[in-house]
Records
---
Amino acid sequence: MSDTPIETPEDGESAAVSDNETADSSAYWTANLKLLGILMAIWFAVSFGAGILFRGWLDQFSIGGYPLGFWFAQQGSIYVFIALIFYYTFAMRRLERKYHLED
């Protein structure tokens, strides 16, 4: 056995690191859930709102010769969903960089 002592961090240092990690983790998940909530609200508004609830009002406008409510129900919501997916990946990469969780 070696007679050299093993250095261990002082209790205050390990507690500070643990508290900092816990605070970062909590802030990350708060930001993550906020982002998901906003994107889910947009998803709901476009799919249920524009495609079903407000279809009658949106039909007074047209896009490509079709009533806007019909267009949202058939194609527009799909385009919005795809845009939300791309935005989610962009926003999550930015969020992971901010909290140093990059792969």
---
Amino acid sequence: MNRIDERRRRLIGAAAMGLAFAEFGITETATAASSEANQGAAIAMGALNSLGAPKQIEAGVLNVGYAELGPAKGPPVILLHGWPYDIQTYADVAPVLASRGHRVIVPYLRGYGTTRFLSGDTTRNAQQSAIASDIIALMDALGIERATIGGCDWGARTANIVAALWPERCKAMVSVSGYLIGNPLVGEVPLPPKAELPWWYQYYFATERGRAGYEKYTRDFARLIWQLASPQWKFDDPTFERSAGAFDNPDHVAIVIHNYRWRLGLAEGETQYDALEQRLAKAPMITVPTITLEGDANGAPHAEPGAYARMFSGKYEHRLISGGIGHNLPQEAPEAFARAITDVSAT
């Protein structure tokens, strides 16, 4: 308790800033907007939808499963998925970027797909800095010094962290829903009831019933989140099932539950990440060129772009993607996401 109190005093300023991001309903005007009605014929949903068989490589504490497309010497792009999604989020994005000359890497995060811990003794930790450290380890293993990084959901948060803590490794960034770096101290502060309601699953996961329920009904739970987060996305069963197999990972439930409990301060992280978390709790500015994206029908909790625009001190643009686009923006609007990667990489 003393340790937590000490951190609270030291980081109270940053916590207040983080709370501002968590308060939904902020109505400042976005920096820029782009309307692309359902992408037209640029990329028909599911038209490409092939990442091939995953490769495997040892990186840090993991044996990482990943898709790789494009020329080996092309400018690197790393695309990061979230929960409850997987690398198929980029099934239509990655081939387009590869066709434009990029070396595209799409890894399964820890707890997903064919990614495995190298040791059974490793803590199944899903705090934000641990996941970001996985990406640095993967880049080292693949010999990638610097890459453009794009992400959605957990992947956007991870991209934010890499850009903030290791800007020398991040050439540029595309982030769905903006600035997502968290602070568990902020999670202790209650929000107004309407702002709390969309986070119902986090409170469910905080209970043993929630852990058991997610383990028993993983696919049903994921499908429900897909529907709530993207209410206008008419995905079919084959599309869902292509991703659902990634949740059969033996560590998936442990990783998901730890992630959300850690965010609420209900689960400890690992001391080896304390220094990184202290830096993140101060809400560091992101200096690399960035494009943030938001769908016009995102049903998941998200801040208004005006709430986070000031957190990007480099070249920055925000684009609103119209046409009923929800939370899983790269899969719902692949051409818009691919164009953002292409544009920000050129800066």
---
Amino acid sequence: MDRVRPRGDAALTSARNTAGRAVGSSSDHFAAVLSLPFSAFGIRLAGDVVDELVFLPPETPPSAPDCALAEQVALQIGRWLTDPEQPFELPLAIRGTAFQRRVWNAIAAIPLGEYRRYGALASELHTAARAVGQACGANPFPLVIPCHRVVSAAGLGGFANATDGYLIDAKNWLLEFEAAH
């Protein structure tokens, strides 16, 4: 995971799934909401680190970055959309369990334009495919840790703990976009 550089004094916490959280609640302040080709995308910060990146429903209104770090995240995502070989250099909060971080490191090593099946990744990590899927669903830094590159043996599989709707559309878009580069 050389291209992903977590740093900061953030406490180690369990990663949360944000797919089911209601946008606009008081706990859902985003430093920016980007309108991307595949979905709206929220940037949540905690002090001087990126705390979470969140796929949001496409109809979520964009909001401009409210600080320099949010602007930097938005710029790097914009650069990635132009050239997906651009590495992310973001200060990420330390998140997840030791097992989740192990899975996320393995995901971050999947080359651009390639994918791994949950079962194959599970074999590499000496664990179960379901555990890999759960770690994928808990990934707090999609795009930076490209969990969309993990697919099921029978097709696309889930994404961010969803099996249909805008999240699956986003996974499809991301895989097609990366395959074209």
